[in-house]
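User: Sorry, folds how?
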Amino acid sequence: MPHKALAPVAFMVLAVLFSFPVFSQQSDLDLEQLLLRTGIGYNLTGNNNNVLVGYAFIRSDNYLPGTDKKVITRENRIFQQFITRQNYGRFHLLHRYRFEQRFIKDDFTMRLRYFLLLNVPIKGPEVLPKVFYLSGYNEIFINTEMSFFDRNRVYGGFGHQVSASLRAEVGYINQILETQNKDQLNLVMFLNL
């Protein structure tokens, strides 16, 4: 039987730098969390599948309940992720699977995350420059030890693809934690370089 050669996989290096400040609802410009994330990865197929390894630094300044005193926590996080995309007509899906190793003070934990995103252009079959779209996602966080459930995020928003590399979104996010719910209004700008 003849040997069938596999087609070479085209690798493309991805470099990512992500900054995400979260401001407190207690007062204006009161930083609640700062997340800096970077990584390097490869596109495995076209623009459908990629893998990435990365590092994140997270500083959280949380208020103690009923006081104006804050507890500051610093976290260093290493992560690995796989992203795959599918299109079904006008429905554009993205699945992200992430595995995190978290270093918080003298503690080490691991966490799994699954993220499902749906973008639907309001007009036309694709989200192209100058197109408005609806966006929604769900992301669940699972601990590998102790309490299994960490959190679940549900988001719905409205976006505009400004150019091939720039898009803007406004949306509502509900974060369900083990002991409470947290609602936020998000204003987000995405810049792909």
Notes: Confidence is low (pLDDT under 50) at residues 1-15. The longest strand covers residues 70-88. Residues 13-191 form one domain.
